[in-house]
Amino acid sequence: MKADNFYGRERESYAEPYKIKMVEAIELKSREYREKAVTEAGLNVFNLKAEDVYIDLLTDSGTGAMSNRQWSALLLGDESYAGAKSFFKIRDAIRDIFGYNYLVLAHQGRAAENILMGTLVKPGQRVLNNMHFDTTEGHVRMRDASPLNLIRAEGLNTSLEAPFKGDMDLEKLEAELKKGAKDGSVPFVMMTVTCNSNGGQPVSMANIRAASEITHSFGLPFFFDAARFAENCWFIKQREEGYTDKSVKEIAREMFSYGDGATMSAKKDAIINIGGFVAVRDDENLYNLCSQRQIQYEGFKTYGGLAGRDMEAMAAGLYEGLDEDYLEDRIGQVRYLGDRLKALGVPLQVPFGGHGVFIDAKKCLPHIEQRFFPAQALTVELYKEGGVRGVELGTCSFGHTDPVTGEEYFPELELMRLAIPRRVYTDRHMDMVAAAMGRIMDRKEKIRGLRLVYAPVIMRHFTARFEWI
């Protein structure tokens, strides 16, 4: 770790590397209105109308502001059903950045996961990951398989300052692969960069390289969940010895060289509003199998659920997401909000990650048992207090009940995520978020827990409904 350059420059030493050409009005509704709205939403902020939200930090997925270059690229879209010029433009961009030859487009990241998991995962298998995100885990479970998280122990300690808390536990990986080699129960290994579920924490190049070598020694493919790959590469440049003088693009090419393919929600680091893909290095058979599933669920292989204009904007956005001035500003704003919350005594996952600030709800609301959804309760309170919409990443998102034993499983982390959209909000908006959270901290002992009144079996947090205890 390079302690003198842990985050990059101080935010006060530079300005945003863009100017604003269009604005959208937002309104802070009254507290009475907000309390009624969230109650009618079943105490689940996913069910709120966007117009009733003042500052929307629900997700950074598809919520970024496209650039003038991306808007211009929309007009170049070739809407041919087969063989569109726009397809070859995005294919060439992915070959240039990722080094992967085959591209299977999808309308977003979870559709790409559906293609890959549906192709490779069989009932009873175990998919190994540093830490699955919600949709990834959901697609594994939908195939009657088990997602297994192998994050290093330090990644679950929210108060520990360490540079690469997204790293995979290599000893656990090797042990699981030895078991899988005997019974064929592991189809592949996946590395999520950055690791969303524990705070957008980066993975080191050394860990990626070692995990790849271990996986390949067992004859299995190694994939990336690459939704926020550019942010991960920025942290490698800042924190890992030997990468200071390399460009983010060069770091990305090395990182992806250790993999056999990737899924990506392009709605994150490609800064577009829709789109995703599976990319495969050189396995033509896997590409053909994925293409068959793509055609069945998404569309023909040269558009895959996307309009030509979306492919054009994605190709432009992939390169913009690698711009180092942009990345410094983007990650700098996350740090800006994190610093202000930390000064108020809010317990956070540190160091701050790439795409948002993650509040430790177990530490913030220790009087609420985990089975009563403390992170969800905190999310509701933040909306009531300041019109700010975050998202729960805790017991509702990642907890589940064993279908055989009926035993309830609670995740180790109980977090509320404040995901910051790219190039959308100013630092003054972040000040408003911090002020609202500060008022909550003054009365946090009075916050009550929640109980479920409705929830589906898989990915329940999107549509669950609650009531106060």
Question: How would you describe what is shown here?
Answer:
The structure is a single chain. The chain is an alpha/beta fold and about 475 residues long. The chain has two domains: about 5-60 and about 325-469, Aspartate Aminotransferase, domain 1, CATH 3.90.1150; about 70-320, Aspartate Aminotransferase, domain 2 (3-Layer(aba) Sandwich). The chain has helices spanning about 30-40, 70-75, 85-95, 110-120, 135-140, 170-185, 205-215, 230-240, 250-255, 285-295, 310-320, 325-345, 360-365, 375-385, 395-400, 425-440, and strands at about 55, 100-105, 125-130, 145-150, 190, 220-225, 260-265, 275-280, 355-360, 390, 390-395, 400, 410, 415-420, 450-455, 465-469. The protein has a seven-stranded mixed beta sheet, sandwiched between helices. Helix 2 (about 70-75) packs antiparallel against helix 11 and helix 14 packs across helix 16 (about 425-440).
List keywords for this structure.
469 residues, alpha/beta, Aspartate Aminotransferase, domain 1, Aspartate Aminotransferase, domain 2, seven-stranded mixed sheet, three-stranded antiparallel sheet, 13% strand, globular
| Biggest beta sheet summary | 7 strands, mixed
Low-confidence stretches: none
Which structural class do you get from the secondary structure elements? alpha/beta
Count helical runs: 16
Query: In which range does the helix fraction lie?
Result: 25-40%
Approximate shape? globular
In the CATH scheme, what's the topology name of the largest domain?
Aspartate Aminotransferase, domain 2
Rg is: 21 Å
Let me know the number of strands.
16
